[in-house]
Amino acid sequence: MPSIKLAQLSRRYLSFAEREEVAILHAQRLGVRAIARRLQRSASTISRELRRNAATRGGGLEYRATTAQWHADRRARRPKVAK
Length: 83
Hints:
The structure is a single chain. The protein has 83 residues and is mostly helical. It has one domain (16-76). It is 52% helix and 10% strand. The chain contains four helices and two strands, in the order αααββα. A two-stranded antiparallel ribbon has the order 1-2. The longest helix is centred in the first third of the chain and has 12 residues, at 16-27. The radius of gyration is 16 Å and the shape is globular.
C-alpha cells in the first residue's frame, strides 16, 4: 500500500499562524523589514499584507490576524467556471 504524503502549505500565501505572528510583531512596533526577517518572507509581502488588511480604529491602523484570514478566505472563493 503506498504511503500518503500530506501536502505542504504553499509559500505563496501567508498562513493563519504567520498572520498571527505579523499581528503580534506589528503590535510590538517592529518594522516591516524586521517582521519579514523573522518570518523569512519578503518585506514587500509583509507590507502588502499590512496595507491590505489594516483597519482604521481611532485614527490609527490596526491589524488583526483573524480578520485578515477571513478576508483572504473570501478573496480565495471565486466563481468556478463550469465546463
